[in-house]
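ugh ok fine here u go
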Amino acid sequence: MTEFLKHVLNGQNQFASGGLLLMIVGGLGVWLRAIPLRAWHWLVEQSTLMVTVNDEDAAFVWVKEWFLEQKFLKSIRRVDLDTTLRGDSLALVPAPGTHWFWYGGRPFIVYFYRTEDTKGFTNRRSEGLTFRTIGRRQSFLKQFVKEIVACHEKNVGDKSSLFVHADYWDRVQGYVPRALESVILRPGEKERLLEDVEKFKNARQRYRHLGVPYHRGYLLYGPPGTGKTSLVSAIAEKFAVSIYAINLADFNDRSLMKAINDVPPGSVVLFEDIDCMKGGKARESVEQSGAQKKVEQRDEKKADIFGVTLSGLLNVLDGFHTPDNVLFMMTSNHIDALDPALLRPGRIDYRLYLGAATDEQKVELYLRFFPRAAEREAYAFVDAHAGATTMAEFQGTLLAVAENRPSLDTEASPDRTESDRTRQEEPVLAPR
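structure:
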C-alpha cells in the first residue's frame, strides 16, 4: 500500500497525485477535528452516572409522584397536565424535553422523551425518563432511587390501594376500600375466613421450613350480587394490603406472566369472574382423535395471542412464575364451569360459597343503614321486600329508601309507638 501511494504521488499525472493528496489531507483534518468531541463524550461517560426508567415499569409513576413533591418543579416552564396521579386534582409534571435541577448538592439533567407512534393496538405512546448526574459511585444513585421509593410508600401509606394493568400496574386514584363491618355474611363465615388469612400471614417461616411455596388461593363463588368483590376489598383493607386486579380477557399467557411477575410481595391478586376464561372447562373425553388434537392445538395458539389458556393460568397460580407471599383471590358465578385442575389444593386452598341473603343478613344491613330503628321494624321491612334475594339487591332497596328520608338522625327512637312508626314509613315503603 505504501509503494502504491509513493507511485501515485510521484507519478507523471500531477492532477491525480494532487487530488489524492488533497483527499488524504481533508480526511485527516476531519478526523482530527472530531478528536475534541470524542474526548468530550469520553470524559462525560467516565464522570457521570445515568439511570433510565420507561413507562412499562411501575417506577415510572413513582418518579412522577416524586416530581410533585420537589420545589424545583415550580421553576420548570414546559409542563404536562396530569390527572392520573392525584385523582380529580390537576397535577403539573415535566413535559417531554430536557430539564435541569439540583439534588443532594449535585446538578441533575433529566431527559423526558415520548414517541409519536402508538404502542400496538392501544392509543398509548411510549414514554421514558433518563436521569444523569456527576459522579462515578452508584451509592449516590441508589440513595436517589431510595428517596423516590420512600415518596411512593408515603403516598400509599398503610392503606389498601387498587391497581389495574395497562402495560404496567397503575394505581386507581378514586378507589375507596370497603369497611369490613359493611360486608355482612352468615354467622361465622367472615370470622373463619379472616382467621385463615391471619394464620397464613403468620406462617411464613413454617412454609419455608417445609419447602412449600408461600402463597394461598381463595375462591369466592355464588350468584352475582352476593358480595364477592366487596369481601375481597374488605379483607385487603383489614390487612392493609393492595389489590392487583386482573381481567383475564385483557391478557394472553405471556402478558399475564409479566404482569404477575411485577406484583410486589404481600399483595392480593384478584381474578374476577374466573369462570369466564375461554377454555377453562376440562375436556369431556380423555381420549382424542388426531383431528381433535390438531383443532385444540390451533385453539391454544389462538388463545396465546388473544387470551389466557388454562395452562398459562395454572403456571402463574402454582408454577415457577408464581410470586412469593401473595393471596390469590378468585371470584366465580359458576363453579361448575371451572376445570378440576384449577380447584385442587395448592391453587385453591379455601372455598366460600356466597348465596342468597338470609333474613338475618338483611336485618343487620337495615340496622346499619338506620341505626335508630327497632329490630321488629327491620324484620317488617325485610318481609315487605322479600323479592330482593341478594345483598346487592337489598342494599339498592335501602339506598332508595334512604334517599326519601330527611336524615338518619330522625330515625325511629325507642319511645315512638308502633302506629307512629308505621304512619311515617308508609310513604317510604311505597314502590318508586
